[in-house]
């Protein structure tokens, strides 16, 4: 198979699978997207406060001052909300992944599946931490091994989403085996979406639904 055409084939398969389940797919994406938006907003506020000079050039001094005042007044509440939302998103991503696994395999996806991660919340968080630690360890060596590690462990969350009883270390090993010989293909698939970033910006995020 020509690797150049692989992303097109995968996307065509996805579009075909989603043909009769666009409604549930979009609903789940919007639901999770709201919480990710809140998380990103909290992170952005923190970044603005931490790097005032850089943001003054972009947003103007008045806007940055208002953000800093908001941060100073609501620091504790912002921290609590940020931690709670990040924890929620970390857990819910497993049900989110399971919804799309069901769709791509021709099953009738249900919105309630998005909450499946709460059936094993400790494991969901532990998996996220474990994979993150592994990637960071590889990053300490060099950037390239760190990127390769991201690809190697990229299937871990999907494996646990589909088989929550599997031990975390086994899921990591399965991901490594699954990605053996497919890292270049995965890289090509990811980069094939780069043009969509411009479309998403031009449509103020609406194109991300597709």
Quick gist of this model?
This protein has 11 helices and no strands. By secondary structure, the chain is an all-alpha fold.
The major pleated sheet works out as: none
Order of helices and strands: HHHHHHHHHHH
Mean pLDDT: 88
Total strands: the figure is 0
Portion of residues in beta strands equals under 5%
Q: Helix- and strand-based class? A: mainly alpha
The number of helical segments is 11
The global form is globular
Radius of gyration: 19 Å
Low-confidence stretches: none
Helix percentage: over 70%
Alpha carbon gap, first and last residue: 27 Å
Describe this structure in words.
The protein is built from eleven helices and no strands. The longest helix is centred in the middle third of the chain and has 30 residues, at 75-104. The chain has helices spanning 6-18, 22-50, 52-59, 61-73, 75-104, 121-141, 143-152, 156-162, 168-179, 183-191, 194-202. The two termini are 27 Å apart. With 210 residues, it is an all-alpha fold.
């Amino acid at each position: 198979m020509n690797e150049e055409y692989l992303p097109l084939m995968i996307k065509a398969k996805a579009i075909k699978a989603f043909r009769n389940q666009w409604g549930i797919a979009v609903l789940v994406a919007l639901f999770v997207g709201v919480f990710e938006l809140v998380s990103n907003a909290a992170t952005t506020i923190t970044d603005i406060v931490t790097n005032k000079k850089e943001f003054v050039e972009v947003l103007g001094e008045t806007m940055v001052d208002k953000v800093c005042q908001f941060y100073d007044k609501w620091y504790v509440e912002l921290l609590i909300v940020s931690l709670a939302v990040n924890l929620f998103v970390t857990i819910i991503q497993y049900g989110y992944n399971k919804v799309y696994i069901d769709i791509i395999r021709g099953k009738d996806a249900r919105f309630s599946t998005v909450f499946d991660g709460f059936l094993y919340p400790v494991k969901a968080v532990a998996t996220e931490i474990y994979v993150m630690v592994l990637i960071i360890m590889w990053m300490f060596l060099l950037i390239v091994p760190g990127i390769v590690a991201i690809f190697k462990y990229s299937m871990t969350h999907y494996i646990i989403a589909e088989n929550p009883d599997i031990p975390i270390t086994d899921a990591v090993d399965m991901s490594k085996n699954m990605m053996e010989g497919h890292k270049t293909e995965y890289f090509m698939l990811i980069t094939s979406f780069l043009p969509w970033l411009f479309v998403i910006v031009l449509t103020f995020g609406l194109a991300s639904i597709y």
